[in-house]
Specification:
17 helices, binds pyridoxal-5'-phosphate, alpha/beta, Aspartate Aminotransferase, domain 1, 4-stranded antiparallel sheet, globular, Aspartate Aminotransferase, domain 2
Length: 472
């Protein structure tokens, strides 16, 4: 054996036999040809660091140089890949937080692109040449579409909640039901946001039941707000009671205390026809008389990440003047995409918004897409007779962590492979365009509801690659 090819040359500390970062990086550069030097060096450093730790714990043996080069090359390619990059969402979850939530409409993406690539009248009124209101168009549209007196927008709904609490209740008390002290994915926890806003939390009721009397008893001279929080990622069933927003508003009025609702997933169009609970419809929440309602731009609205606040004029004006608003403000690309999305709703072109289109697509059409995909995959599977590909009806939770308990009829392509579903799913994730699927009852399910144009070809390629690598 060529002594140089073995990393561990001595019998003493195996770490001493590891190649230097430079030597490993050189070998990897030769292998990869045109990979950027920074990525190769970084990958070599990280792989060697990790290996040193493993060796010191006796968790592994020293690998051959060849294996080390291969591992480092793979890691370097991973570092070179732009992030975030495209994946196929075959999970059926229309609003999938880990996959970037709402997909923007082409028009919204084009608007963001144009705002990014040119100077714009972002804060200028071309008619007068004077400074203009950056949010003017968006807040006008939002107010009109929600039926509120005024509106404001910030970076995301967590920021909107923070801004509202800071503006309306800093240094005072906010009353919240124990059933609504929730944690939303990505570390949004209601008690912690309240704390950050300098607000004292007054918990009322119990986890499953909160009554009007609980709120009334909790209101005191220092109460600034009653806060209602939508339980966006779980349901409470069985022996339950909660105080609805209209009743909460009535209690607030009795005592001269404002009401804020963190709605989370709010829609500007009525989706109750799909079976979605009415509380997601923002105009209905505004009509119930809350002082302020906030919701996300990239959930049911189907726009870019943003936190939208709609409510009474004085309340919105106070938030606009809060110095925090400047720290939480929207960037111009997002603003352009949001403006486009709101105009699509205002103009009755909301069918161009992918989130709404996907949610409303009739199951017969989803089935057609599943069948077309299956046809492609059956051809690929012809070379692997042990693969079973079939189209089956299913029901899927389309809201991820945003619409608990809400499911739609859908159609999936189910693939069963001798290697097992987990292995197949992981091979599909390793494809050039990673494919995210559901795994159930020993099958990989590819849900056609969330497939976008071009995804069929990407899935086909993923399966071809998995077969050619002998994974499946
Ligand atoms: C999603 C959600 C949030 C967080 O919204 P982001 O836009 O992700 O910041 C806050 N509150 C509720 C009730 C939510 O559903």
């Amino acid at each position: 054996m060529n002594p140089d090819s073995q990393v561990n040359q001595g019998s003493e500390d195996p770490r001493r036999g590891l190649p230097s970062v430079d030597r490993l990086a050189r070998a990897v550069s030769e292998r990869l040809g045109d990979a950027p030097a920074w990525a190769v060096t970084e990958a070599a450093r990280q792989v060697l660091d990790a290996l040193r730790v493993e060796l010191s714990q006796g968790a592994t043996d020293s690998p051959e140089l060849e294996e080390l080069v291969e591992r480092t090359a793979a890691h370097a390619l991973e570092l070179v890949r732009p992030r975030p990059s495209r994946v196929v969402n075959a999970t059926g979850v229309v609003l999938h937080t880990n996959l970037g939530r709402a997909v923007l409409a082409d028009g919204a993406a084009a608007a963001a692109n144009e705002a990014a690539r040119s100077y714009s009248d972002l804060e200028l009124d071309p008619a007068t040449g004077r400074r203009g209101n950056r949010l003017g168009s968006v807040s006008g549209l939002l107010a009109r579409l929600s039926g509120a007196e005024a509106a404001f927008a910030v970076n995301n709904n967590a920021a909107a909640t923070l801004l509202a609490l800071d503006t309306l209740a800093r240094g005072r008390e906010v009353v919240v039901s124990r059933g609504e002290l929730v944690e939303i994915g990505g570390s949004f926890r209601v008690p912690e946001i309240l704390e950050r806003a300098g607000v004292r939390l007054v918990e009322v009721g119990t986890t499953n039941r909160t009554h009007a009397e609980d709120y009334r008893r909790a209101i005191g001279p220092d109460t600034a707000l009653l806060l209602k929080v939508h339980r966006s990622n779980f349901e409470i069933r069985g022996f339950t009671a909660e105080v609805g927003l209209p009743e909460l508003v009535a209690i607030g009025r009795e005592h001269g205390v404002g009401v804020l609702e963190d709605l989370g997933s709010g829609s500007l169009v009525d989706l109750t026809g799909l079976g979605l609970p009415p509380e997601h419809h923002v105009p209905g929440r505004v009509a119930s008389g809350a002082d302020c309602v906030c919701f996300s731009g990239d959930k049911l609205l189907g726009g870019p990440q943003a936190g939208l606040l709609v409510g009474r004029r004085e309340v919105v004006e106070a938030m606009r003047k809060n110095p925090l608003a400047r720290a939480l403000r929207l960037d111009k690309q997002t603003l352009a995409a949001l403006d486009w999305t709101l105009r699509a709703v205002a103009d009755g072109r909301d069918g161009e918004i992918p989130t709404l289109r996907q949610l409303r697509e009739p199951e017969a059409q989803v089935r057609g897409r599943a069948e077309a995909l299956a046809e492609r995959l059956v051809k690929v599977a012809a070379s692997a007779p042990a693969l079973r590909v079939e189209v089956v009806a299913d029901r899927a939770a389309v809201g991820g962590g945003t619409l608990p308990g809400f499911e739609l009829d859908t159609w999936v392509v189910a693939i069963q492979a001798p290697c097992g579903a987990d292995r197949l799913a992981s091979a599909l994730r390793a494809a050039p365009v990673p494919v995210m699927s559901r795994v159930r009852d020993g099958a990989v399910l590819l849900d056609a509801r969330t497939l976008l144009e071009g995804d069929d070809a990407a899935i086909e390629l993923a399966l071809v690659e998995a077969l050619s690598r002998g994974v499946v």
